[in-house]
Amino acid sequence: MNAYIAGLIVPLVILLFRNSNNRKRRGLPADVGGEPGFTVRNHRVTSPLTSLWEDVTTLAELFELTCRKNHDRLLLGTRELISREMESSSDGRKFEKLHLGEYQWVTYGKVFESVCSFASGLVKIGHVREERVAIYADTREEWFIALQACFRRNVTVVTIYASLGEEALCHSLNETEVTTVICGRKELKSLVNIAGQLDSVKRVICVDDDVPSDAASAQHGWTITSFSDVERLGRENPVEADLPLSADVAVIMYTSGSTGLPKGVMMTHGNILATVSAVVKIVPELGTKDVYLAYLPMAHILELIAENLFAAVGGCIGYGTPLTLTDTSNKVKKGTKGDATALMPTVLVAVPAILDRVRDGVFKKVNAKGGLSKALFDLAYARRMQAINGSWFGAWGLEKALWNLLVFKKVQAILGGRIRFILCGGAPLSGDSQRFINICLGAPIGQAYGLTETCAGGTFSDFDDTSVGRVGPPKPSTYVKLIDWPEGGYSTTDSPMPRGEIVIGGPSVTLGYFKNEEKTRESYKVDERGMRWFYTGDVGRFHADGCLEIIDRKKDIVKLQHGEYVSLGKVEAVLLGSPFVDNIMLHADSFQSYCVGLVAVSHPALDEWASKQGIAYSDLSELCSKEETVKEVHASLVKEAKKGRLEKFEIPAKLKLLSDPWTPETGLVTAALKIKRDIIRKTFQEELSKLYAK
C-alpha cells in the first residue's frame, strides 16, 4: 500500500517542480535506482559529472596539465618570517607575536619541478609504492608539494590533523601501517612521545630544516631527513613517474571525529576529481586572476578540494594561518599586516564559526563607537538588506557602490578588500551571518553541504541565490535523494515539501572506511545500476526549486520524559546567536523532562556586561559562577529561542557557564569547530549531573 501511495504522490511532487515558475529551477527530479525516495540532480547536467577536463581521470594528470599550461604563472606563496617576539599581558602571561613580511612566490613550473624531485626523493630514501605516507602538519606550501609528489608515484596519502591527540594519532598511523611520516617540527614532538607505540614507521621527513636532536635518535626506530634533503636527493637521482588510475586510492582521510577514535575514509582519484570538477562548473569565472587564501587544515576535505581546485584553474594560493589571518589576529605583531591584508585574496573558504566571529567583531566595534557613526552604519545596513531582499540585481546598483564607499569599505579591508566570493562549509551558516557577508563584504556566499565520506560532494548554493537557510541544489557530481524516516516522522510524501534522510550518490561518494567493513556496509550501499550511495544520517527537505535545506540530524534527536522530541543540533544553531555564547552544547536525558546546557562563554561580551553592571571579579571563572551572570546568559538564550521559534521544552532550563574556550587543541571540537558531543559529555559529566541534581 505504501509503495502504491508513493507511486501516486511522487509524480505529483515532480509536477510541482516542473510547474514552479516563481523561482529559477536549480535542481530537477532524477530517475535513479536503489532505495525508493525522492531524488534530485543539478540542473546543469543530466548525469553526474566525473571530470571537466578531457582525458584527465586522476589528480596527477590534472596537476601536470595545469603546470604545463600555466608554467610561468605564480602558484604558491608563503610570507617571509621577519621576527618572533614575546609580549606580556597585564596578568603576566606571555604571548608569541609574529612580524611577517610580504609573500614570496613560486611559479607553476618551479612547483612542478619540486613535486617531481620530491617524488624521486621518496624512492631514493626507500619508500615504495605499496607503502603509505602520512602527512601530519599544518597547512603550508610543503604540504601541497608532498601531496602532489605522492600522487605522481601512486602512493596513498594518509592525512592527519596537526591538532589530533596522541591516542588518535597513534591509532591512525598503526591502522594504516604508515611507513613514512611527513611532519613539521612541532608535530615531530608528538611523534617522539608515541615512538614506542608505533608499529610500522621507518622514515620521518621533517618539513622544517632545524630537526630537534632528540628526534633523530636511533632508538625511535626511524631514519629522519629534512624536506629539502629529500628534494635534493630526488634532483640528483630522478625517477620516472608511476601514475595512478582513477580507481586507485589517493587519500585516506582521518576525520577529526565528533565521536570516538577517528575513522579513515578512502578516497579515489576519481572521487576527488569529480568534486573539483563540479565546483569549477558552479562558481563563475574561476581562473588565473583569482587569489586564494589557504589557512584551513589541509587534512580537512574542504581545504584539500579548494587547493586542488585553484591549482587546476591556474589561480594563486597564498598560505596563512587562523592566528595570523587579519591585522588584529592573536599572533600578529601590532602595526603589521595580517595574511588577508598582505595577500588581498579574491576567494575565501571559511567555516561558519570564523564568519560568525568576524560578524560579531564588526558589530561590537560599531556599537562601541555609537553616535553618528553607528546611525550611519545602521542606515546603510538596513538599505542594503532591503535591496537584497527585494532584488539581487537592485543590490548591485549605484546605491550599493555609495554605501560601500562611505560605510563598508573598512569592513571589506579586514579581508583584503578584494573578496568576490566566499565558500562556506563544514556546518550550517546562520542567516544573520550570511546577510552580514552579503552586505558588509559585498560578496555572494556559496553554502556547501557535503561530508568527508562524499568527498565534499553534496550540494552547493548558486552564485545568484540570495535565500538564507538553504544549502543549494546537488553539485553536478552528485545525486541527492531523500528517503522516508518513519521514526522521526519524516516522509517524501510530506506537504508542502518532501522530507527525509539525506542519501548522496554519484562519483564523489568514496569507497568506505579503512579496515572497517561493518561500518562501511552500514553507511554505504550500491544499487542495481552500480551507483554508490552514502547514508548521511542528516535530515533535509527539498524546496520547489530543487534546493536542499538541512532540518535535522538522526543521531541528535532525543525523546524527553513526557514524549517531546528535541533536536540538539537545531536548538544549538539557534542559541549560538546569543552574544554571550562562543559555543554551546545542549544535553537532553530521556529520564528527564527538561534540557540543560553547557556554554563556553564569549569573553569580550561577558567582560563588557560585567563592567557595565559594576560587578567585581578576580577572573573569568569567578564571573561565570556568579548567579547574576548565569541569569543574564539564560535570559539571552531565551530571547534567541523566541526569535528562532523554539518550543519551551527545547530551551535549556539550567546552564553551566565555562570560562575556557573550546578549541581543536582541547579536543572538545573538531578542526572544523564542530562540537564533539560524546567527549564534551564525558569531560563535563560531573557538571551535567549537578545541573539535573539541583
TrEMBL record:
Q: Which domain of life is it from?
A: Eukaryota
Q: Which InterPro entries match?
A: AMP-binding_CS, AMP-dep_synth/lig_dom, ANL_N_sf
Residue ranges occupied by any AMP-dependent synthetase/ligase domain in the UniProt entry? 97-514
What is one term from the GO cellular component aspect held by the record?
A: membrane
**Coiled-coil positions:** none
One GO MF annotation is: long-chain fatty acid-CoA ligase activity
Provide the protein name: Bacterial long-chain fatty acid CoA synthetase
User: What's the source species' lineage?
Assistant: Eukaryota, Viridiplantae, Streptophyta, Embryophyta, Tracheophyta
Q: Which gene is the coding source of this polypeptide chain?
A: 11414801
